[in-house]
Amino acid sequence: MCIRDRFTLPVGGRPRSCVFLHGGWGKIAAAGSTQYAIDRWSPRLLVNLGTCGGFAGDLTPGTVLLVTRTLVYDIIEQMGDPLEALAHYSTELDLSWLKGEPPQPVRREKLLSADRDLVMEEVPRLRAQFGAVAADWESGAIAYVAARNGVRCLILRAVTDVVGPESAEAYDGTLELFTERARGAMQLLLAALPVAADLLQQAAGAGLDVADLLTRTRSRQANADAFTVYGTFVCSPAGWTPEQAQARSAELLMVREENRVEQAFWSGDLDNDPNLIDTATDLTSNTAIPYLTGLGMLEDHVADEYGSLGVIHMTRGSAVYGLAIGALVSSGGRLTTKLGTPVAAGGGYPGTGPGVLGDPAAGNAWMYVTPAIFGYRSEIFTSSNRPGDLLDTLENDLHAVAERSYLLGFDPCPVGAALVTLECPCTESAPK
Questions:
Q1: pLDDT tens per residue across span 311-345
Q2: Of 5, 108, 156, 158, which sits 20 to 30 A from 66 (CA to CA)?
Q3: Secondary element (H or E) of residue 27
Q4: Partners of 107 in the beta sheet?
Q5: Are 214 and 239 contained in the same domain?
Q6: Which of 140, 132, 139, 108 is nearest to 210 (CA)?
Q7: What is the distance between the alpha carbons of residues 72 and 34, in angstroms, rounded to a whole number?
Q8: In a 3-state reduction of DSSP, which class is residue 109?
Q9: Is there a contact between 5 and 377 (Cβ–Cβ < 8 Å)?
């Protein structure tokens, strides 16, 4: 279990802190992490996003299930009533606060859970005995713990593969098909999270029709592409073990990943969308204006187009200038404008202009403003610790690689850019 990230989502028109918790796989990890989240943050609503396996003939890959009931089916009771034991760990999810029926492709369904993949020969029995069409490893534990604590729980699971009595498309021993489909499914669910959080709060407070909720979520969702950053380490096998080489590659990744992610978010050079330069409108027509004027223009732009608290992006040099003239405020490690708008001064921000405008002239700088940002990052993955997997037999070198995937985006509102001058602080200052 680990906290993947804490970030801000625009909920109810205001920025709210959101904790993304990756609880691990299996019922034990799921139950423990759910209780930890409830004890640590006292949430009013738990939203669980994940994947599941569907029953062949009932579901197709890509279908998203809105779970109405969970049941743990790998309980074997031989001293008492086995049906009573199964019923004890069956949980009805209270979705009464969501009104109406969801449109396709989201389906309301019961979901089975067990610490095992679906067994092909058991699918007909599970379908007949429980009336279910899908199963996973964690939802039963998550729903059970949430219900025992009196916390509302919403579970959305995307089908990655289907299993039937005669075939199981993902059971090839490689995890390749599951990994590919799970990545796409989670990107879709995560990209919709900011809008979903806003709409779910409205639904919880006002009984919003869930058909309207899900339709609006799909039409307004903030789309984002995942991208990956890497750390590599090449060494001689005489002085390094595979484990040491992989650990070193992970260290090198963590040293530089923040700057590399910032560079990609600004420039889109890892084919990531959205990014700043490809989405921004030049508010100054490529003509440098005074720093304070440009900052005010960006504040007006986000207020007019977004109507909520956005984020202003600039290079560290531009931030130093803003602090020198009193346009920016630094307090408690947080950088903001005088109005309280967060300022991201990324060390990896290259400072280029929108589109093909490229680098600004000496003494000028580009600044951008976006809606609130959402983000997710995976754990660090390494290539292998097995000796033969890392060895380049031609060069007799170990090649270790560590990687982490990111998904960054923002609400689908216009991004603004302003070209400003960085004149001597003595010629420009903010009102005291």
A1: 999 999 999 999 999 999 998 888 999 999 999 99
A2: 5
A3: helix 27-41
A4: 65
A5: no
A6: 108
A7: 16
A8: strand
A9: yes
